[in-house]
Amino acid sequence: MRIDILTLFPAMFQGPFSESIIKRAVEKGAVEIFLHDIRDYSTDKHKKVDDYPFGGGAGMVMQIDPIARAINKLSEERTYDHILFMTPDGRRFDQQEANKLSLSGNIIILCGHYKGVDHRVREHFITGEISVGDFVLSGGELAAAVVVDAVVRVLPGVIGDETSALTDSFQDNLLAPPVYTRPSDYNGWKVPEVLLSGNDKLIDEWREQQAFERTRKLRPDLLDD
Questions:
Q1: What NCBIfam families does the entry give (predicted)?
Q2: Which residues are annotated as a binding site?
């Protein structure tokens, strides 16, 4: 998989992408991630990429030309399955969407900033719009990092035990069951006996029941789907 990220602040990705799962995925060759500074595609001598909105109003708007140049250049080099835009009014991102995107070959992710991007970008270039929640961030960078992490971690071979990702919350519209490790007794707080029994059938049944109960209590909306 190849992921190209268009951003005004590429340095914001250095931390998330240089540690843990994403770092290992890149080292294994499971994913290639390229960061592109949108300012590099500006024809303005000062590398300006924003301007005042037509019709007035507060805030600045990212211009179409630098973004179009970036997308067109990348699209001339390879075919992209998706050109995504991170925006609070996009489709709510979930585990099912992460699973679908993990099957892609090449993806572009555009990170907005300021008041947003010229709407013609969304009309003529973007194939999908994604939101990580009903709130507004300063830009799309943090949201893009969340999406990349969720997608990359389910790629084959990225996690040592692939069944681990398959039993995460939301994979089957259920929250994950509780997990425990040593010691089995801490200050009188004991691990459920069934987990120490060695009976795989009973353990599976317990986990399934716990997943359902936690979902019913904490996220009943998932059971309505």
A1: PRK00026.1 (NF000648), trmD (TIGR00088)
A2: 112, 132-137
Which fold does the domain 2-154 belong to in CATH?
Alpha/beta knot (3.40.1280)
**What is this structure's pTM?**
0.89
Q: Is the peptide bond before 53 cis (omega within 30 degrees of 0)?
A: no
Owner of token pair 């990225």: 158
| Ramachandran angles phi, psi of 186, nearest 5° | -125, 110
pLDDT digits 0-9 by tens, 71-123: 999 999 999 999 999 999 999 999 999 999 999 999 999 999 999 999 999 99
Domain boundaries, the chain: 2-154, 169-222
Task: Give the fold, CATH level 3, of 169-222.
Answer: Trp Operon Repressor; Chain A (1.10.1270)
